[in-house]
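Researcher: We plan to redesign the surface later, but first we want a full-length starting point. Tokens attached.
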């Protein structure tokens, strides 16, 4: 198969890849159950795991699957946090004011649904009338999820409140393994993805460009597109590197704890990329804290990219990320945000500071409103006061970004930030 043909096949595979013992007869009747029975030995051989019990297979109408996905999403921890995340991402410039994040995610979840594995019922559902060329792709992907669930308990992992960065990293491992094995089985040994690091970037661009197939995703804000694709594409690259680096180690034995570990799998495999520190921020002054979370290296990279539009500089600027946390603060004059990032070195912190300052100028075209120490910047624009200043937290270099309504006293005492590293 030519490189171009492989690329088209891979793009098709990912476009149809949807959300996510005892040997015996597959529970279910009809062609899908027979196809699952044929695929099980191949999935077991690829993953090195055996099914503890036969998987269940059932068909549902597209409307039933859409209703299931919508209900499951609205019941999830992610949905309960959407209001706070919507406010934070609007303040960070990821979203336009007025964006309804709940509706946007609900619409995206049900676009191009071909099949889904439900960890609560341990059943693989296939949409009635799915295109024949998508059946094998969909069943392979969801069978990997069914197998994962028998060793990991996917439902508890998906519902755990781990913070944005860690949750995204876990999702990348889960979806990444399913995507990698799905594509490897589809394309055979020695395929483009198995042998070429970074090939997923090409697939990402093809998916972005394929607006007629996934119009809602293509029209979504950049941060939504990228965070939805990240678990599949960066996760698949992580799975490839893990499988090559640890050929005898169970893939799910040690889930990555940050998107930094997913983005730099070789460092993680070599043991030179420990889990990032957890930051406990003191309550910001000047208002009431209504929501707090983190971004992680991946979304920090997106924040730099959305203004500079330079992938290399955004990746370089986020490379030395060493933990972050933010708070949304409600004030009498509107919402504010304080965002603290820590860095591996003063050089990394300085590089991020310079790029962040360029991003602020590009986004707001603000007027400078006085210095903050030797390097800090203070701007005023559109009734907002913007601050960017270097800080040090327990000896770790950092950068503090504050965006607040003018006339408020929103601030964060960096000297009171507590830093802890998970074991």
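Model: Full-length starting sequence:
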């Amino acid at each position: 198969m030519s490189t171009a043909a492989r690329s088209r096949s891979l793009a098709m595979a990912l476009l149809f890849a949807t959300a996510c013992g005892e040997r015996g007869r597959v529970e279910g009747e009809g062609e899908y159950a027979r196809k699952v029975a044929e695929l099980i030995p191949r999935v077991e051989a690829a993953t090195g795991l055996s099914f503890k019990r036969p998987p269940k297979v059932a068909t549902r109408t597209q409307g039933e699957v859409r209703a299931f996905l919508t209900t499951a999403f609205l019941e999830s921890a992610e949905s309960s946090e959407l209001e706070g995340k919507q406010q934070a991402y609007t303040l960070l410039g990821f979203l336009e004011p007025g964006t309804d994040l709940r509706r946007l995610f609900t619409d995206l979840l049900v676009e191009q649904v071909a099949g889904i594995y439900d960890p609560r019922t341990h059943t693989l559902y296939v949409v009635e009338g799915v295109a024949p060329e998508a059946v094998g792709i969909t069943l392979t992907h969801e069978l990997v999820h069914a197998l994962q669930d028998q060793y990991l308990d996917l439902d508890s992992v998906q519902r755990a409140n781990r913070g944005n960065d860690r949750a995204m990293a876990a999702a990348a491992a889960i979806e990444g393994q399913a995507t990698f094995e799905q594509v490897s089985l589809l394309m055979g040994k020695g395929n483009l993805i198995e042998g070429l690091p970074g090939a997923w970037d090409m697939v990402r661009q093809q998916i972005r460009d394929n607006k007629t197939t996934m119009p809602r995703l293509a029209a979504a804000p950049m941060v939504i597109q990228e965070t939805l694709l990240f678990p599949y594409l960066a996760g698949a690259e992580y799975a490839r590197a893990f499988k090559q680096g640890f050929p005898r180690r169970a893939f799910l034995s040690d889930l990555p704890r940050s998107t930094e570990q997913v983005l730099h799998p070789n460092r993680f495999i070599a043991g030179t990329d420990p889990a990032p520190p957890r930051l406990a921020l003191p309550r910001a002054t000047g208002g009431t804290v209504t929501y707090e979370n983190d971004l992680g290296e991946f979304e920090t990279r997106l924040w730099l990219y959305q203004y500079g539009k330079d992938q290399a500089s955004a990746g370089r600027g986020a490379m030395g990320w060493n933990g972050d946390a933010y708070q949304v603060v409600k004030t009498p004059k509107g919402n504010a945000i304080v965002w603290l990032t820590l860095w591996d070195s003063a050089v990394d912190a300085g590089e991020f500071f310079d790029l962040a300052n360029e991003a602020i100028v590009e986004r707001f075209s603000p007027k400078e409103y006085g210095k903050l120490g030797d390097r800090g910047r203070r701007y005023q624009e559109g009734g907002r006061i913007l601050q960017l200043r270097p800080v040090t937290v327990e000896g770790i270099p950092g950068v503090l970004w504050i965006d607040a309504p003018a006339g408020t006293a929103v601030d964060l005492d960096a000297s009171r930030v507590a830093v802890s590293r998970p074991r």
